[in-house]
């Protein structure tokens, strides 16, 4: 609980700070170009004189927003397919085939293709990540539904004449909430890292939006000139945020007794 609480505080501070920073904090200042880290600029400045500390905070806030949209979208897809799988054997066979089909496609390849199809941007990237991060969680939800289907109270509900969909929603869904919540949280760090990866490749967010992937991509041109801080601090900040989500998901997994993070992601 202590580690989970600290992770929540860290994530909330980063997100709120990045969202509340004024737009003027990342404006160019040619008088302050290429400054190394100092008290006035803890993360240094870039080739346009922009404060890298402010840009990093805004980029992390954008990454968290994309991760939230993608993780919730992937969790919703997994939940709907898991509930549908419990409605009958025929539906279960079809959904199992769909899950196996998506799992057979290389993850990053499908993500890049979908991001290209949706045209990039924040909604397109979030949708692409959501459509590629649901299969493992859907498989876990489906397995839980199959296990619940053999419970005694489920058989009693069927004898009372309740429909399969009503049984799935009224009696099975409450048992899936902890598993689903932990699964969505564990999708978060992967969503953030993949958003940074495809943005780094130029298929994600637009250059006008502050994002960690854009910052890292732009910094590659200046590392040979000794401007190491352009990539080091944003990359370290991204790692800390991703680790915080992983710690939070692992803490909730331990408290609720749900499956491991490897099973979910």
Structure notes:
The chain is mostly helical. It has a single domain (1-6, 56-256), classed as Orthogonal Bundle (MetI-like fold), CATH 1.10.3720. It is 72% helix and 0% strand. It contains eleven helices and no strands. Helix 2 runs antiparallel to helix 3 (89-104), helix 4 (107-117) runs antiparallel to helix 5 and helix 8 (164-200) packs parallel to helix 9. The radius of gyration is 22 Å and the shape is elongated. It is found in: Cell membrane. Keywords: Cell membrane, Membrane, Transmembrane, Transmembrane helix, Transport. It is a multi-pass membrane protein. This is ABC transporter permease. One of its GO terms (cellular component) is plasma membrane.
Shape-level CATH architecture: Orthogonal Bundle
Helix content range of the residues, please?
A: over 70%
Percentage of residues in DSSP E strands: under 5%
Distance between the termini: 22 Å
CATH topology: MetI-like fold
Cα Rg = 22 Å
Under CATH at level 1, the class stands as Mainly Alpha
Shape: elongated
Q: What is the total tally of β strands?
A: 0
Summed up, the helix count is: 11
Order of helices and strands: HHHHHHHHHHH
Structural class: mainly alpha
Number of domains: 1
Q: What's the pLDDT, averaged over the residues?
A: 81
Find the CATH superfamily.
Answer: MetI-like
Low-pLDDT runs of 5+ residues are none
Instruction: Report the biggest beta sheet as strand number plus sense, adding barrel if it closes.
Output: none
